[in-house]
Amino acid sequence: MSKQELFTVRDVMKADYDMVDGVATVRQALEVMRFVETKCLVVDKRHERDEYGIVLLSDIAREVLATKRSPDRVSIYEVMTKPAITVHPDMDIRYASALFARFHISRAPVVENGMIIGIISHTDMVIKGLMNLT
């Protein structure tokens, strides 16, 4: 029997992510997106004791596009999820996947020492992690 290699969130996460302020309009938030593979925006904390939020592009599609609301009149805080469920970079991807399933989420910020260091998604765990397990 071969020893199964451990993959952590840090091994498969994306270090690039886009962060926005919750008071930004949806249009402003979309205009500052820099990363081609971005499917979510992390909503920054308002102060030290606050929590991060997250808004998926699917949230914007459902809450703004499908309801014919103006992206200039909808603020990110109206469509975001807060607090965002976060994961630690040293978590085994199998546990991260179980957490995602339990809470019906598809991606989460990776937080270390109170700071976001990346984003992890089901896709990252399957493509980068599962495909490399022996």
UniProtKB/TrEMBL annotation:
Source organism of this protein record: Mariprofundus ferrinatatus
Extent of the signal sequence: none
Gene3D superfamilies: CBS-domain
Pfam families assigned to the protein according to its UniProt record, in alphabetical order: CBS
Top-level taxon in the UniProt lineage: Bacteria
SMART domains: CBS
UniProt key word Transmembrane helix: no
Matching PANTHER family: CBS DOMAIN-CONTAINING PROTEIN, CBS DOMAIN-CONTAINING PROTEIN CBSX3, MITOCHONDRIAL
Keywords from the named record: CBS domain
KW GTP-binding (keyword) present: no
Domain (CBS) ranges: 80-134
InterPro entries registered for this protein in UniProt: CBS_dom, CBS_dom_sf, Diverse_CBS-Domain
Name under which the protein is recorded: CBS domain-containing protein
